[in-house]
Amino acid sequence: MTADKIFEALSSAPRRRILAFLSKTDMTAGEIVARFSGIMSQPAISKHLSVLENSGLVWREKRGQNVHYGLRPDALAGTLVQFLAQVCPRSRPFRRDSAAAAKRKKES
Amino acid sequence: MTADKIFEALSSAPRRRILAFLSKTDMTAGEIVARFSGIMSQPAISKHLSVLENSGLVWREKRGQNVHYGLRPDALAGTLVQFLAQVCPRSRPFRRDSAAAAKRKKES
DNA sequence: TGACTATATAACGTTATAGTTATATAGTCA
DNA sequence: TGACTATATAACTATAACGTTATATAGTCA
Q: Is the Cβ–Cβ distance between A26 and A70 less than 8 Å?
C-alpha cells in the first residue's frame, strides 16, 4: 500500500475506470468484465483487478463462485491528499479537512 | 493537459520528487540535475522534465543560457481533486473546498 | 571567433506493461 | 460424478518506458 504502488495503479485509464465503477457499488469480477465487453478480455480485467488489489486501493472477497471487489476509499484519499499537501501549495487548505477526517475516524 | 497525461506523469517516483522540489521554488534544469547527482544522468532528468511539461503540470521558460521550471499548482490540484470527487465517496467534503477555491480565483 | 557552459536530442539496450489466446482451478448443481 | 460457470494463471507478442553514453544545439564571454 505504498504511494508508489498506488500511483502506478492510477496510471492506467482502464484501472481508473474500474475504480469509478467501484465507487458506486461493490461488484463481482464478472460484472466488471461485462462493463468492458467488446473492449477488453476477461484475463486483462483480471490482471487489472489484481494490480488494484495489490496497491491496496481495492479489497477482494471470494463468495461462493464469485469474487467481489470494492473500493478502499481511505487508501486513495489518504495518498492523494498527502501528496497534494506535499506538492501543491494551493492545496494547503485541504490539510484541514484531512485532519478533521482523521479526527472523525478516531472518535468513531 | 489531460487527466491521462497527468496520471502518467505522476506514476514515476523521480518525477514526483521533482514536483516536490518545484513546490518549494522554481528551479533551473541544472539545479534539478544537481539534486539527482550520482543517482541519475542529466539526459534522464531532461526527459522527465519534458514529460512533466508535456503533462501541463510544469511550466518552462528559457532565460539566457538556463531553462527555468516551475509548478502549475492548479493543474495538479484540479485533476486530483476532480478525480477524488469522482471516485472516492469519503472525499465529497473536498468539493466544497474546490468550489471555494474556484470562487476565490474568479474574484481575484 | 573559439572555448566553455547549459540543456536537449539521438541511438541504443533492458525491462516492464498491456494485451492476446489457451488452459487450469475451484465452486455449483443436476 | 459430470457438465457448467466464474475467475485466475501461463505463455506469448508488441509496444512503451527508463536508463545509459555520445552528440548536437544554443547561449555566454574572453
A: yes
